[in-house]
Structures are given as structure tokens and as C-alpha cells.
Design goal:
The protein is α/β, with parallel strands linked by helices. The protein contains 14 helices and eight strands. The longest helix has 20 residues. The chain is globular, with a radius of gyration of 20 Å.
Amino acid sequence: MASYLDFEKNIKQLDEDIANAQIKGDEAAVAILNKNLEKEIAKTYKNLDEYQRLALARHPDRPYALDYVRAILSDAKEIHGDRAYRDDPSIVCYLGYVAGKKVVLIAEQKGRGTKYKIMRNFGMPHPEGYRKALRVAKLAEKFELPVVFLIDTPGAYPGIGAEERGQSEAIARNLFELSALKTRTIAIVIGEGGSGGALAIGVADKFAMMKNSVFSVISPEGCAAILWSDPAKTQAATGAMKITADELKALGLIDDVIEEPVMGAHRDKDGAAKAVGAYIVKALNELEAMSLEEISEKRTQKILSVGSYDE
């Protein structure tokens, strides 16, 4: 059964009408209803506000990292473990090919269904997950392979065990090491990019967001709780925080926005995968045209240009 968001109620009704018409064998009605559905989808998704895009970023049917791995990565081989504590299933690492280009792919995986959500810790990595990501990124550097990061997390896991094993240090270490990594890197927010949990694998030469993804220093719920102590203010916080792809592109905090299928990634997973795959190839072609020295200098200037400061 498909999941529908509040603003998709008209789409839900048309889907139900189409299903009923198909059961009755009324092909003429199905054709008319399908045209009406296309128009309704186009109208609904044309002018989404920030809160609606947040809902889409968290949509339970939205493609997760492993959906993209299966769709765009050929001859994929998974790499496990941080070589220090354990293998964290909330971060997955693969070696494979995207359109014939050999890459290392590192991604946050939320998990679908209760069993796998628990196994993946709802996409909230422990410190060993970030250390695994760094170990694999350094492996890519050793063999001069480009790295692709897929970001999709509500945030780093805040549990006692994670704090005891150095959660903040692991994130800080990744920021430090990835900023100086001697290979080409691409980061894409495919869903929810939450705080340091996202940034820990988000330092890259090319940083992009899918159209209906979000990227923020804190969740809107957390912002509303801190500023107003009122969860009812979540929608207002979402609008004020500037967390959507278009807003962050306008602020110069990301490089590119990846357009999703008109009906949203959750209704056209193949179309979403093609868009992500095409962006990776395009970004790799641009980065391959530059030397590693040029890339390193450009990355440094890009990091230093974020924010403003007085000396």
C-alpha cells in the first residue's frame, strides 16, 4: 500500500478511483482518470512549501541509499568494518562502477520496515560508522578512486554508548580528514541531511541536494523545542531555517540541485536513480578535468568561503 502525505489527498483519491475503474474493466474511465492524475500531480508539486518538502524528504516510500546502490552501481562489492570496534550497518560502503567509472560509494542507510529500521538504527550512525566511512575514504585515496557520499540521516546517534566511544571526535575527525582527502569527492543529500551526522560525510568537491531533500544544523522539531518550547511551531521553524535545496543553493552553501521526477522520488524511483546517476557522471567528468592540486586548492577556498568572520 502506498503512503500519502496530507497534501496528497487529491492524488490519493484519484489513485483509488483508478484502481476501482481497473477492477470494473472500464478502460475509458482509467484513461481519463490517469490524465487527471498527471494534472493533479503537476499542480500539487509545482509550488511546495518548505514544510511539504520536509515531509517528502522523510517520506516512508522515498528511495534510500541501497535503492540507489542497486540501481546505479554495477559490480558492487561491499566493504565492512572500522577495524577498531565493529561494523555499523547505518553506514554502507561499496566499491563498484557508475556508468563504467570506478568509484567508492559511502552512504547512510535508514532501513525499510521495522526489522531493518532497527538493524540500521534508523539511519543514525554510531562513531564506528563514521570511522568506517573514513577508513574506506582513505582506501579510495590510496588507490586514487573518486568517492561518492549519499547523505540521508536525521542525525548522528546520541546514545550513551555512542558518546562513550567518541561520537563528536569521530565527526570532527571526518571533517578534518575529508577536507584534505587527496582524491575527487562528491556528496549528495538524497533525503534528510541532519546536523553533524550528515556533515560528517558531507565535505566534498561537489555538494548537491535532490530537489525534495533537506539539510540543516538541527531538525525543525528540535529548533521549535529550543526557541519556543512548542512542537506546534515546527512548521514555522521549517520555513525560517532555510533548509531546502533551492534556498541553500541561493545562499551558496551547496553547488547543485538535482531535479526529481515531477511526481517525486517516492513515486518514480527509477527516474530518481537516473537523475542521481547522471549527476554523478557529470560531476566526475568536471572533476577529472582538473588536477588533484587544483581540486585541493578549490576545496580549501570553498570551505573557507562558508560563513563570514572578522579578523
